[in-house]
Amino acid sequence: MSEKPPLLPYEWPGSYYIGEEEIEAVTRVLLARSPFRFYGSDLQHTVEQLEAAYRQRLGRAYALAVNSGTAALSIALSAMDVGPGDEVLLPGYLWVSCISAVVRTGAIPRLVDIDDTFFMDPNDLERKITPHSKVVMVVNMSGTTGHIDRVVEIAHAHGLRVLEDTAQANGAAFHGKPLGSFGDMAIFSFQLNKNMTAGEGGMVVCDDPALFDRAVALHDLGYPRNAEGRLVTDRPDCQLWGQGSRMNELSAAMLVAQERKLDTITAAMRRLNHRLYAGLAGIAGMQPRRVLDPAGDSGPFALLIWPDPDTCQRMVAATRAAGVVTGPLGLNNIPMTEWGLHLYYNNVSLTQKRGVNSAGRPWSDPANTFAADYTYTRGALPQADDLFGRTSLLSVPPALTDEACDLLIGLFRQAAADLGL
Ligand SMILES: Cc1ncc(COP(=O)(O)O)c(C=O)c1O
Q: Is 69's C-beta closer than 6 angstroms to any atom of ligand 1?
């Protein structure tokens, strides 16, 4: 069956809202001829403004802007001194960056199952903690979270730190507390697909001054800087190896403007998201993702759990044929099994235990022999495997009109009726 023309607009959320404010902010940096954050002829301190906005938004003591979410993860893990001999617990629903950040420190990733919130299952976390566990990385996927309070409680009770990846849930909250304020450290991404964007960018936040100082040194050249932006080499606690991940003033200018729109962007997606879930609710056998706090969901995705994989595939095929698709670049209305490197078992470098060098580190490191039996292929996480197999994923573009949303609901209901659901 050939597909009808796309019904869905797919403006990536943040970029859909780019307007005069971003243009003005970027122009100010250009006219000042000062695109570097630490010094320049007429420095505008725009990265600092963005960091201040994040401290305030999240109620956290420290915020450090960096050049990607992937870099933010690496910096945070190294700030927490993760390395060979350690393992980082992380969920099966994630993004490849979460895994690569662990592997690149020389530590071992240890998979934890998810529950029907699509967030780490606290019960499986308790089962998976070992004497080698050092950090629990939680990932607030597809706009919202799960039992994050319980997971943090378990981690802390075992003396483990929590790194909270909020790349996909910027602007979300859990019972009134912003996501990104639960972990000992948290990170954000400002890449194009995210709720606000500068094309690229990231943020690391925390409350512990020692972690922050280490993150500052790690994101730059391995040393902190003084008020004039010059490197300080007489701080023994901060003589590290840096990774060249500074944010520039142009990105920050865009992001300062985008941060001011973030609540508008997420409110628009959340409203449509609720409309969609409410409209689809009557379909027999379809269970929406369990969202523990719908008011805190930032809204960019709806996850629909079908009774079995075959029904899932047939519903996606029928609704796609009816036009529930986006343009060629958009990923929308797909079975989750096609969601690429978001699923642990699709990460071939993980399933094949590829190393970061030809010696096969970290898997070959003598400090990591404890992990020799760890496996990462499909089957490692039964609950995740079951959910991935029968869930479809629909993105919720903020530009979707109510009429298009209702049309889409009608097409789903028709397809379900045709399939006898
Ligand atoms: C959950 C998650 N973590 C981390 C990242 C990495 O962010 P970036 O693309 O900015 O490196 C992403 C981005 O796609 C993500 O979805």
A: yes
Asked whether 112 and 160 are in contact (CB, 8 A), the reply is no
CA-CA distance, 304 to 300, in Å (whole number)?
Answer: 13
Residue 10 has pLDDT above 80, yes or no: no
Domain boundaries, the chain: 14-258
4 is an active site residue: no
Tokens of 364: 């070959």
Cβ atoms of 162 and 138 closer than 8 Å: yes
14-258 CATH choice from 3.30.300.30, 2.170.130.30, 3.30.565.10, 3.40.640.10:
3.40.640.10
* Residue recorded with tokens 């695109």: 35
Which amino acid, 17? Y
Counting Cβ atoms within 10 Å, is residue 116 exposed (0-12), middle (13-18) or buried (19+)? middle
CB distance 187 to ligand 1 below 6 Å: no
For ligand 1, say whether the CB of 362 is within 6 Å of any of its atoms: no
Q: Which of 70, 90, 194 to mutate to test the pocket of ligand 1 (most atoms within 8 A of CB)?
A: 70
- What single-letter amino acid sits at 112? V
Residue 289 backbone dihedrals phi, psi, to 5 degrees: -45, 140
- Full-model pTM: 0.97
Q: Which two tokens stand for residue 258?
A: 């985008």
For residue 10, the cross-strand partners are none
Classified as helix, coil or strand, 31 is helix
Catalytic-role residue among 128, 134, 194, 353: 194
pLDDT at 329 over 70: no
DSSP state of 93: B
Q: Are 115 and 383 in contact (CB under 8 A)?
A: yes
Q: Which helix (H) or strand (E) holds 206?
A: strand 202-206
pLDDT higher than threshold 90 for residue 9: no
Work out the pLDDT band at 330, boundaries 50, 70, 90.
Answer: low
How many helices (H) and strands (E) in the chain? 13, 13
